[in-house]
Write a structure and sequence with these properties.
By secondary structure, this protein is α+β, with helices and mostly antiparallel strands. The strands form two sheets. Strands 1-2-3-6-5 form a five-stranded mixed β-barrel. Strands 4-8 form a two-stranded antiparallel sheet. Strand 6 and strand 7 form a beta hairpin. The longest helix has 31 residues. The chain is globular. The N and C termini lie far apart (73 Å). 31% of the residues are buried.
Amino acid sequence: MRISFNTIYFLIICSFIACALFFTIKVVSFKQDVHQSNHFVASGESVTVIRVVDGDEVAVQHGRQRFVVRILGIKSFDPTVHDPLFAPAARLAYQYLKQETQGRELRLIYYDWARDDKHRVLAYLHLDECDVGLHMVEQGMSVVYERYPFERMDAYLAEEQAAMQQKHGLWAYPAVVKRVLLLKRVWQQEAGE
């Protein structure tokens, strides 16, 4: 019995659809698992980074519970958005977090337990004694997210100013600097509302 080209083509297409469906279900299930957790973690406790979501978010595990942490004080650009201006900085922040935190234990630090509208826990992450978000600002991988005031804002802004003057990371690119400064004006206006 001979198999026709159309049959082979149909089987290949069905295989791709099945794979896409499988991975979509797996991703949706993972997101529901980490976003629906109402688990409380005391400030200073260790969590294990199980996945880097992007340059300012990580999925963590504490015991058997999983949830997403939005790193307080920073804004990193999304590495999946096809914006050629921010792509290098976005990849740099994502790769740094992946290399330095994935699979490792970090301490979750916060002054008030809070979640944002996406159910992400808002906290600082510390790798040993290093404030991960502050380090990312120092290296020019992230900018200080001024839309919402936070406890360490003055220290973060001082390090950002130094990174800007020394042209670290994204501060080395005039077009990026121009757009970041416009974004910061918008955030400052929104914070003042």
